[in-house]
Design a protein that fits this description.
The complex is a heterodimer of chains A (114) and B (116). With 114 residues, chain A is mainly beta. Helix content of chain A is 0%, strand content 56%. Chain A has no helices and eleven strands. In chain A, the strands form two sheets. In chain A, strands 2, 4, 5, 6, 9, 10 and 11 form a seven-stranded mixed sheet that branches. Chain B has no helices and twelve strands. Chain B is mainly β and 116 residues long. Classes of the chains: A mainly beta (114), B mainly beta (116). Chains A and B meet through strand 5, strand 9 and strand 10 of A and strand 6 and strand 11 of B.
């Protein structure tokens, strides 16, 4: 595998379920990001991790819980979601979290909350 | 605060025709500017970026963009498009010294549809 991978690619879950999204980067980067891409809306930055430490939580509801066990892996744990949380969730990584460091994106997980 | 406006949600064009995708930004400070492309079922890929220097920036796949500070615009152009250019295009800004980390603010995207 190369670049940034995300699993699963598609996920359907009920509002009472608990699920997790996984992201893995094979680029040797030290920073990882979660974005939410909703239809007809700009990408929204959710979380930023630098060297496994969270450096940004962009006012995201607590039903989304990120985890970064090491610099190659990033998870997004989901519980008691709402239908409006249905979206494409994109993971990205960059060499570091400093400005000008190019972000590389994964293909995303398409989440549908029923 | 910074914001990005992509003026067209969809742009249909015939193959081999020129295309311009428009992007305007709002910021009280200097910003860095980017264009990303998202092909179907894929993540975003960087097309080009403006950091400083020449206002005409060349990117991959024959695309270029021109930074116009007075009009706060960063329009993307290609002189002759191919079917394979069909994708969603995103303009983004990054304010310098934004809390020390890499913060991208995206526009809503423009869907480019190239027809034969």
């Amino acid at each position: 595998e190369t670049g940034v991978t995300q699993t699963p690619r598609h996920l359907v879950m009920g509002m009472t379920n608990k699920k997790s999204l996984k992201c893995e980067q094979h680029l040797g980067h030290n920073a990882m990001y979660w974005y939410k891409q909703s239809a007809k809306k700009p990408l929204e930055l959710m979380f930023v991790y630098s060297l496994e430490e969270r450096v940004e939580n962009n006012s995201v509801p607590s039903r989304f819980s990120p985890e970064c066990p090491n610099s190659s892996h990033l998870f997004l744990h989901l519980h008691t979601l709402q239908p409006e949380d249905s979206a494409l969730y994109l993971c990205a990584s960059s060499q570091d979290a400093l400005e000008l460091s190019e972000q590389y994106f994964g293909p995303g997980t398409r989440l549908t909350v029923t | 605060a910074q914001s990005v406006t992509q003026l067209d949600s969809q742009v249909p064009v015939f193959e081999e025709a020129p295309v311009e995708l428009r992007c305007n930004y709002s910021s009280s400070v200097s910003v860095y500017l980017f264009w990303y492309v998202q092909y179907p079922n894929q993540g975003l890929q960087l097309l080009l970026k403006y950091l400083s220097g020449s206002t005409l920036v060349k990117g991959i796949n024959g695309f270029e963009a021109e930074f116009n500070k007075s009009q706060t615009s960063f329009h993307l152009r290609k002189p002759s498009v191919h079917i394979s250019d069909t994708a969603e295009y995103f303009c983004a800004v990054s304010p310098p010294f934004s809390g020390g980390y890499n913060k991208l603010i995206f526009g809503a995207g423009t869907r480019l549809a190239v027809h034969p």
